[in-house]
Structure formats: structure tokens, C-alpha cells
Request: fold
Amino acid sequence: MHKKFLSIIVISMLLVGCKHGEKSVKTIKNDDKNPSNEHVIDKGEIDTIYAPLSGLPISQTSEQRPVAVMVNNYYLARPQSGLSNADVIYEILAEGDITRFLAIFQSNIPEKIGPVRSARDYYINLANGYHALFICHGNSPKAKQMMDSGMIDSLNGLIYDGTLFKRDKTRKAPHNSYILKEGIEKGVAQRHYSYSEQVTPLDFTQKDLVFDSSWKNAGEVFIKYSHDARNNVTYKYSNSTKQFLRVQNGIVAKDALNGKELQIKNILVVEATHKIIDSYGRRSIDLEHGGKGYYIVDGKYMNIQWKNVDGRIIPFTLDGTEIKLSPGQTWINFVPFLKDVTIK
Reply:
């Protein structure tokens, strides 16, 4: 009788806890990605799924392997196709004073991406940080060596021009090579590459940012890559959308697929050592040792230190705390010198 009475009391206490508790505890296996073995989550959070490389909510869990595409940024290649779908875009100088993009897609692979341009070794290293399928049209000697060695799974337009890659007859070469979504899928099947995997997410916050005295206003960000104004970049903040627009040569960047202006949430401008290494003007760029930079979001910016963490460029506060990104598209601009960046 005494045991039965105790059982009734225990059950009653459990029922009361379930009725009044507003949070539940989900136990997660303790591993490198989840250093703590318990995670307290709100009930409303349980059913929310976020894209690993944009932090935006999605309807169902995605194990799409990231796809990293070399995209042409010569003025005759604009407007480019597919960039509004990218989760992360790196902008880095190639030869001369013209940049190229490494556009990384995971949450939404567009039907057409390009124009696609040739690879350099530092873009491959960055793509490998996401274990991405790498897509290019052409290559430097070092980039070819890396792809031929199997360092990265790749599809090269030099091999698949006219099959997996298609030419746009309204544009002139080399600014008219595009990869179609169906071409990516066919290439993956032909080369027996994996096309699904569990993607390691970037670190995002789902809370509203709080700006203290370490933040300054950033309504406009200007990056001088060249004496030719067509190659320079201006980001302009919109209070109404809480996003940045991208402007080159006085033209707001749009996606040629849908005509929509690019909406950029996070901007990292990072300083790295650039060196000319051959007579063609090819560069080596130090991606390994980190350095100074700016993190720009919601019309504000702060001084940061950037580090290469497992192949990804990650921002840290000056006291060494990793910065969580806001959900949305992220651009990472490499520059030789921060003095070439003006923020106002």
C-alpha cells in the first residue's frame, strides 16, 4: 500500500511538470559539432529547420552537397545568372585588377549558373572548406594539378563544353559559358560523385542583433579593386529591407535569371597577403594565417580578426570570440589592403 501511494505521488509530480514547463530538453550525442551533451530548446524551435549555409528556415532537412561555381565578374559578364540563390559568395582578385566569384550553393541550386570562368588554386582551397563539388571552365596550371590529383571533385568546361556546359549565343566568349542544373546532375552521375551528404553548418544567430559601442554606422561600403571604376564595388544598405545592395559601374547587381536585385545580409571584408607569382600576373593569396577585417551587417560594422577554420573564413571579435552570422546571403571580399576600403 505504501509503495502504491508513493507511485501516485511521483506520477502526479511528473504530470504537473509537463503541464507547466515551457521548455523541453533534447539530448544530443556529444561530438565535435555539439560540444555540450544537452541542448535546451523552445517548443516552437523543435519543428524549425534552418539551411546550414544561410541560416534561413527551410521546409525540410536538406542533405544537398554544396556546389561551388567559378563565376565571371568581367563587366561584359554582368548581370550573372543564379547568384541570388547562392548561400555564400567569395570575391577575390584573379589576374590584373578584375575579381572573380566563388559562388557556393546548397539550399537552392538554380537552373542556370554563370558565366563560368577558369579556376585558380585559392578558389579550390575555399571550395574544399565546404567539401563542395567544384565547377569551372578552364584553369591555371596549379589548379589543374589539384583537380587532376583528385584533391577535389570537379567538372571542368574545358572537358564538357557543349555537353554539360552550354554557350549563350547572345554573349561573346569567354563570357558565355554556363552550367545548367541538369548538367551538374548528369556530371555527378557520369563521374560517380556523391551529391548528398550531411553538411556542416555555419554558425548563425536567430536572435535580433544588439549593437554596442564597438559597432559603427555602415550605410555605404566602397572597395577599390582598380583604377578602372567598372571593377570597384559599392555596397549600399537599405533600411526598408535590412539588406545590402551591390553596385558596380553604377549598376545595381541583379540576377539575370529573375531580374531581382541581389539581397545581401552579411559582408566580410578581409585583408590577406597577395603576391604576383608569374609573368601572367597570377597570384598567390594567403588564406591560412588570418588577419584584420570588417564584419558588416544591418547597416553597422565592427573591426574583426578573421581565421581559417577547417578551410572556411570565420570572423572573430578582437577579443577572440567567434561571431555568429545573421541569416541570409553572405559575401566575403578579399582585399590586399584594408586601406582600400571606405565605410561611411
